Amino acid sequence: MNTAPHIDNSYFAAVDLGSNSFHLLVARFDNGFLEKVDREKDMVQLAQGLQEDGNLSQDARERALACLSRFSERLRDIPAAQVRVVGTKTLRDADAAGDFLMQAEEALGHPIAIISGYEEARLVYSGLSHSVINDNNLRLVIDIGGASTEFIIGCDHSPELLESLDFGCVAITREFLSDGITRKNLHTAYIAICERIEYIRAAYIQHGWSMVYGTSGTMRAIAELTQPQDGGAVINSSSLNQLITDMENDGGISKGDFSKQRRAVLPAGIIILKAIFDELHIETLHVADATLKEGLIFDTVGRLGEDDIRNRAIDKLQQQYRVDTQHATRVSHLALHLWRQIDGPVLPGASRTKLLSWAAELHEIGLGISHSGYHHHGHYVLQFSDIAGFGRYEQHLLAELVGCHRKKIIGKLDKQDPRVFNAMMPLLTCLRIAIILHRGRDGIDSTVDIELDNNLIKLTFSPSWLDEQPLTKAGLTQEARYLNAVGFNLQFGPMTAP
């Protein structure tokens, strides 16, 4: 289990901007244990406001921003590095999320990372695995959200299969149950969900598991309805079937102390769970209280300590694509040496030093595909792979650095938002120069200093070193032309005597 590094403030916070509900969790981390001290939930139902054109409705935006403004008060006294905020399925799908995200970040006071379905599943599993007994047995974890449902099989703290499928209680309500809760509508929804589960069914059944856990508010609400038969901690297949019969007869949910919003989407959650039970041959599901929010906090603790899952993900990619790790490490050390001498605009929601280090470690990842245009291959791999621990924005920035580490820059990075371009160029400059200087794939026996003054870059080397490296000198001359094309002036030469 993670142990927190030495910190002055032991409080951490996680905010989950889900498709159905927004959640806030504040917890105290002490000696490897998480003590929940405060939590808030608001059924914003963002997915309900996702329009056919991909835009979020004005009502959904207003509900979301009002909720985030309330959450911001609770986050004021917690260090920014100990607060994580993520957006899931609906924000992944919203075409016009960019302007909304800027407003949302301003309302909340913290950057928001949009995460992939794979990353969402990983965090759900992390939260669950830190809250139950780890007995070296395989477990299946299911999380029904507003617009997606995650399926994870893992052992102890290690997930082995992760999938996020495009259905959730809000989405299914909109798609199949907007005309009412009838036997016909429920059956149509059930068949459609079963078809989507078929995508993962064979692989999951073949992998197997010993116990099934359900997370999320939908699971807890269903457990509340089946409590007279099952006790509230589990959901049995027989009770679920009876619940569906009652729902068909009553035309909806007639029992339970639920909000209007929860009652409206709960029938979809029930029919989703019925399809999952039938497709995966589940008889009993254990309801857990921990989910993505707890996973976010454990992940944050790891980032502040020595257990950053992103570093392990980088190592895995190096192994998968057979990267020359010794060369990558040399490039990384020099790039970071240069970066420490200069500075530039910040990148909200991303560590510039870590981004540069990871880009250096992976700059040759595309060679595992083809030498020709390998920087383009590297960009594609990093842009579209599921990489544990990374939000979409952070992963995009990493892909851009790798994709622009050689050849022309113009027409690629310069098409980014000007603020992103200005913040990325100092990092990219350090990376490109480190790669040029290590073209011989060995160490260099020269001091290398760099200065950055607006768009003027000055490189200085040990006396006479450049004259003894004509190929490197030619590479720097060409690099000056590449940088000049995007508005930067590179000058280089020997150090002057003091």
TrEMBL record:
Pfam family, one: Ppx-GppA
Record has Hydrolase as a keyword: yes
Record keyword Cell cycle present: no
UniProt EC number: 3.6.1.11, 3.6.1.40
GO molecular function: exopolyphosphatase activity; guanosine-5'-triphosphate,3'-diphosphate diphosphatase activity
Ranges for domain Ppx/GppA phosphatase N-terminal: 25-302
Ranges where the Ppx/GppA phosphatase C-terminal domain occurs: 309-479
This protein's name: Exopolyphosphatase / guanosine-5'-triphosphate,3'-diphosphate pyrophosphatase
Organism, as annotated: Marinagarivorans cellulosilyticus
